[in-house]
Design a protein that fits this description.
alpha+beta; Methyltransferase, Cobalt-precorrin-4 Transmethylase, Domain 2; Heat Shock Protein 90; six-stranded mixed β-sheet; four-stranded mixed β-sheet; globular
Length: 450
């Protein structure tokens, strides 16, 4: 019998009690993130092997005492047994902690704090520990002051446009009263500093303070590989980055045209609203403490959007359609919402999946890695591309009807395809066992298997 759920950021499965205090590290990792549970009695393939009743009772007392005494602040886990069929499991559950950061006493705060990232429990670095402190105080990174900046580093004209778009707003007489409630500036010891959110949203030169807070867009040839066709670095404020990235993506996609009466209408190969929502999600919810850019890769059959950081709250890829929202950057999110870029909080992923379903396209995929979120948007040409690739494989196999062996150059010249594409096609045939390689270097030849 299989355990119903796979491992995730909030679930870990173990066949038996692990050594080296791994249970304590995992529980600390859960408390420092979004809570979770550790289930003992399930192997790596999710097969339920169970634990003896006598051992369960012994472990319950030992683990409760050990976790409480070895953690700081003290953690009180919920430990209980669970029957599935004829097997007994031991479950250790904790909720997201209110006094973060939690750490292992024997290692101290600097080395003993752990976080749950994806399916792994990792030691928290100094940046993670600082973010956990802010979270426990109800603060966020985008509220933090930029001490080496000045109020003049905010662009007055950009602030005018934003505040002027609000009904009944008057500018500039109300500016000193408006900026602090939005946490765009921070006053300390009679000095006024811009905040992280203020710089990213309305800065004169945001990349001077945060050089990695940009979006890198690249259009690649084929369905894999790294042969770039076009690329652009989207810099400026988050609004500037959104506009530049959105325009680049749309410009690289295919369109179909139809005539309706006297007018000609065009349709993009995938829903524009899906591009918009995915890009806004990446900009609004990414972890700006991580010094890395958002990366967008456009392939022949898909678009991949990498965003630094994991989900801000207890979300996983199985409940994205529930409309649950956990806000990592409240300053950025509030301004994007009031500027009209975000219609309803929590509707982004719902809109994404619904739009693909209405267009009858393959469903998008969202992957949570150890320190990133990747959203994969299938292109409308993906099915066509797969069909074309299969035809090319058939044509390569047909070459062996007139020759015992062929080279990559033969494939390129006869099929009129690029060298990278020819390499991928022949690799696919070798993987399936239909073709074998002979020789090395320039002398490589390919033969059909008998």
């Amino acid at each position: 019998m299989k355990y119903p759920d796979p491992e995730s950021s909030s679930l870990e499965l173990k066949r038996e009690i692990p050594e080296n205090d791994q249970i304590l590290k995992t529980i600390i990792g859960f408390c420092n993130r979004n809570g979770g549970k550790l289930v003992l009695g399930v192997d790596s393939n999710r097969n339920i092997v169970g634990i003896s009743e006598e051992k369960v009772q012994e472990l319950m007392e030992y683990l409760r005492k050990n976790i409480f005494e070895a953690s700081s602040p003290p953690i009180l886990p919920a430990i209980y047994s669970q029957r599935i069929g004829e097997k007994t499991l031991l479950v250790i559950g904790v909720s997201s902690g209110m006094n973060k950061p939690y750490y292992r006493k024997s290692e101290g705060l600097d080395k003993g704090a752990y976080v749950r990232l994806g399916r792994s429990t990792l030691r928290a670095n100094s940046d993670m520990i600082e973010e956990l402190r802010w979270e426990s105080r109800g603060r966020s990174y985008d509220m933090m002051p930029v001490y080496h900046g000045k109020e003049e580093d905010l662009d007055k004209k950009k602030l005018e446009r934003f505040i002027g778009s609000k009904k009944g707003a008057k500018f500039p007489s109300f500016l000193p009263d408006i900026l602090p409630p939005y946490h765009l500036v921070h006053e300390e010891h009679s000095a006024i500093y811009p905040t992280v959110g203020g710089v990213l949203l309305f800065g004169q030169n945001p990349q001077f303070f945060f050089p990695e807070a940009i979006v890198l867009c690249t259009h690649f040839s084929g369905v894999g590989g790294r042969e770039a066709i076009a690329s652009i670095d989207c810099v400026g404020t988050l609004f500037d980055q959104f506009s530049k990235a959105y325009e680049f993506i749309v410009s690289r996609l295919n369109r179909s045209f139809s005539i309706n009466g006297p007018k000609r209408s065009e349709k993009l190969e995938l829903p524009e609203v899906a591009i918009r929502e995915t890009l806004i999600n990446a900009l609004v919810h990414r972890n700006y403490r991580i010094p890395a850019p958002i990366k967008i890769a456009i392939y022949e059959n898909r678009i991949e959007i990498f965003s630094p950081g994991v989900f801000a709250g207890p979300l996983d890829t199985r409940n994205l359609k529930l409309g649950i929202t956990y806000i990592r950057n409240p300053v950025i999110c509030k301004v994007f919402w009031e500027a009209g870029y975000v219609e309803k909080l929590g509707s982004g992923f719902i809109t994404l999946f619904d739009s693909y379903e209405k267009w009858r396209l393959p469903s998008p995929e969202v992957v949570e890695g150890e320190n990133f979120i990747k959203c994969i948007l299938p292109r409308g040409t993906s099915q066509k591309a797969a069909s074309s690739a299969n035809r090319e494989l058939d044509r390569i196999l047909a070459l062996f009807e007139v020759a015992d062996e062929i080279t990559i150059s033969d494939i390129i010249q006869i099929l009129h395809i690029s060298r990278p594409t020819a390499g991928r096609r022949i690799a696919k045939l070798m993987e399936s066992g239909e073709v074998v390689q002979e020789g090395k270097g320039r002398g490589v030849r390919y033969r059909k298997t008998k």
